[in-house]
Amino acid sequence: MDPTDALQEALAAEHAVIWGYGVVGAAAADNILDRVRAAEQVHRARRSDTAARLHEAGAAPVEPEAAYELPFDVVDPPTALQLAVELESGCAAAWRYVLGQTDDAELRGVALAALTACAVQATRWRRTAGISPATVAFPGQ
Amino acid sequence: MAAALTRRRFLGCGGVLLVGACTGGTGPAAPTSSAPPPPPDPLLALLEEREGLLAAYEATGTAHPDLIGRVQPLQSQTAEHVTALRLALALPTATSTSSAGSSSTPASKGGSTSGPAVPADPAAALAELRSAVQASGSAAESVCVSTTAERAPLVGSLAAASACHALMLS
Predict the structure, then answer these.
(1) pLDDT of residue A62
(2) Which residues from B are below 8 Å from A120, CB to CB?
(3) Nearest to B129 by CA among B60, B27, B33
(4) Which CATH architecture is the domain A4-62+69-129 placed in?
(5) Which of A13, A25, A90, B34 is the most buried (most CB within 10 A)?
(6) Are A77 and A28 in contact (CB under 8 A)?
(7) How many Å apart are CA A16 and CA A44, to the nearest integer?
(8) Domain count, chain B
(9) Across the interface, do A96 and B157 touch by the CB < 8 Å criterion?
(10) Could you list the residue range(s) of the whole structural domain that residue B144 is in?
(11) Is this complex's ipTM strictly greater than 0.95?
């Protein structure tokens, strides 16, 4: 069972999230900018770890795209929060996929930690946005 | 209690007879399957925990109607977890919440969950739910790391959901 492709997808998802948080930060309310930056930092750290892991496995880590298509126009604080939720949900899905592509307990642990962190951050953003319920039954599905 | 035990033993004997019949021996279907029974499926423990959680959510909502708005979404998502686990275990999915006690009899022997008692203080009631949710999340984490690749995504989602539910209870 070779998790390389799934890890590449997870890395691509991390690239997209980091790009997306730039868009979020440009439209978000001032009082949440610190939280936006903190969330982005989490993904930058995970992106480095994931790229390093792929490198060690002898694979060339995928590069980020120059730009990404947004699922909707991000023009104000509410749409910024909505995008933040989308970013974390998409990233959760990528890491959930890794779980099913490896039997390695250590990598499972890494992927589960990432899935959980994305799901919790999505929940925080939904709560900030006043979206109810703030949780989903099966994060990443 | 005695009746349940008797029935279980009887079912057990039936199972052995059935195995003997299936393996096709014409002689007395005696000790062909004397091997120890396989260990219980780890998903069963996760199922029992989440059935217990459902009962705790229900009891909390009954004792503290003011908390229903906060607890209800978590309760219905936990009900979805129970359904998904029963599907993964190939168990019937139509369960009434009140039957949770009987299905988890083996696990709750001597346990502290004799019909979930709810603290009178709402904050304490939420804290109790939170620690139960965290415990079920930790259990799912352990299973996620060691289970089959086929099951790992579902169990991982359960673990992640628990972390989110715990956040909403704090």
Answers:
(1) 98
(2) 160, 163-164, 167
(3) B60
(4) Up-down Bundle (1.20)
(5) A13
(6) yes
(7) 11
(8) 1
(9) yes
(10) 42-106+119-168
(11) yes
